Amino acid sequence: MTAFLIIDGSHGEGGGQILRSALTLAVITGRPVRIENIRANRKKPGLAAQHLTSVQAAAMLCDAEVKGAELGSKMLQFIPRKPVHAGDYFLDVAQVREGGSAGSVMLVLQTLLLPLALAEGVSTVILRGGTHVDMSPSYDYVHDVWLPTLARMGVRAEISLVRSAGSRWDKEK
What is the span of the domain harbouring residue 48? Predict the structure, then answer.
């Protein structure tokens, strides 16, 4: 086994992008990673619902062994055990926290898309959670800016937005 690549999650703005990028690269390369000081520069450091969902999603792609995957955790060990595989995936950000969460699914998508783009075969991913969340790219940004940019690099992906019955918006009407 290759030694852990140790990453300090407090670098730069000290938010979740370091975590998502590290997970993406670990899945793609198969290299184990330990991320310390996760989101150290945030008001509530450690893993929030969307970050924990990203960890779970990345682990699904490569059958990873994971330690430290719990809400509020500031350290995570992620050991990919298999090459990334295409498939059908469903993730609900609300399921990781008692009382639910509208954590950003666009952040979860950031973790999943590139590994799946490199996998053999077609994948379908259904993500349930927030699509327009503060301090996260919105659905519109991902649809209108990020995906077209990736398309120019050869990444083919389509997204659509579906409001589920029983959502907050239905209850307010």
Answer: 5-172
